[in-house]
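Notes to self after the Tuesday call (sharing in case useful).
The group wants a holo model before anyone commits to mutagenesis around the pocket. I volunteered. Ligand is PGI. Logging inputs and output together so the record is complete.
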Amino acid sequence: MIKRSDFPKNFVFGTATAAYQIEGAANEDGKGPSIWDIFSHTPGKIMTGENGDVACDHYHRFKEDVQLMKEIGLDAYRFSISWPRVMPDGKNINQKGVDFYNRLVDELLEHDITPFITLYHWDLPYALYEKGGWLNSDIAMYFRAYATFMFNELGDRVKHWITLNEPWCSSFLGYFTGEHAPGHKNLQEAIVAAHNLLRSHGHAVQSFREEVKDGTIGLTNVVMKVEPGDSRPESFLAASLVDKFVNAWFHDPVVFGKYPEEAVKVYQERGLQVMENDMDIISTPIDFFGVNYYTRTLVVFDTTNPLGFSYVQGDLPKTEMGWEIYPQGLFDMLVTLKERYRLPLYITENGMAGPDKIENGKVKDTYRIEYLEKHFEKALEAINAGVNLKGYFIWSLMDNFEWAYGYSKRFGIIYVDYNTQKRILKDSAYWLKDFLIS
Ligand SMILES: OC[C@@H]1[C@@H](O)[C@H](O)[C@@H](O)c2[nH]c(CCc3ccccc3)c[n+]21
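Result:
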């Protein structure tokens, strides 16, 4: 049985959350609307018709939540800052919003929990969306100013920063499939948004080097293990191409200063415009990649689809999200990332949505314990294979607003009763507590 002491001494175990998914207080103390506030209030966008107005009420309950993290024995906590809470119009400061994050950071430090901050986890100030949002190249300057302000405000106490959470999701789910805010369905917009997201990332890293000299900064991507869904050679080709679009497209430019060749041609015909010195900014050196790993993606050759491929369902056991449980993919991707980019890595998200039910005041989420155990084992295997893996953040600390699924998907190791806001440690939290002292 795997033990915490099998991991390197300074390896950090933590949990991850995001502002819009847990804070609530959506219109309180001067916070401005984000694109997710508007999207979640737009009929038909959220499967359950719910929104993040209250969520887990973390804005008011953060002391209790930090106490629970301490009780479990977490080393670290990854959370995001709501840009429109600190800058309601995307530019001018709302001191009450800033004060909340100062209080949260101080509470974490008082409990010996290391804060890891994500600057952007999808909740763009709506005021900036009205100026074009990620489609307007000026967004990089707004993001740089926001990042610089936060580095100055919290950089004396917070030494680990992530610029963006999953630019692939922000651009392709937000601007191509339309499943996420702002709900556009335009491939050209998705490509432009992705480029501006990466430019914004690069500008924030440049500022960080001036403002927080003893800190580390990285980029978190969703990392999908893309495999062929059948044995046709064309499907192997399709899988390798999809891997370029979803994985390499958001890693290569940050390290090599160039987009993957095979994909550039496709995108240049669809509106990608790279200006002079964009790639130099995007490839400003970072200290680590954050890896959000959940499952594999199966792809088959498909001429009926204009892009030449389609996704297929695999036959492995699945979580409540319909995602296959595939721990081997975590090992494979950690090794792939290490060999290609030679950067330290953090698993910034891994976890599962389960059919969590309260029975006699307990949640017997044995399936989540097994899921975490298997993925912990693969992470350790990767470390022993030479991957410089520095930490592992479970998604998530507590059940929360699961974007287009509303509150119907529970990822937490802590159960949230949304009627009473009562927090109940699931069996997986007790298992983790024991693991962390093993
Ligand atoms: O869905 C669970 C979590 C979200 O709650 C987080 O906010 C977000 O960072 C996050 N990203 C992913 C992976 C996204 C993804 C999976 C499979 C296919 C496409 C995208 C899963 N999650």
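Two things stood out.
The mean pLDDT is 98.
DSSP finds 15 helices and 13 strands in the chain.
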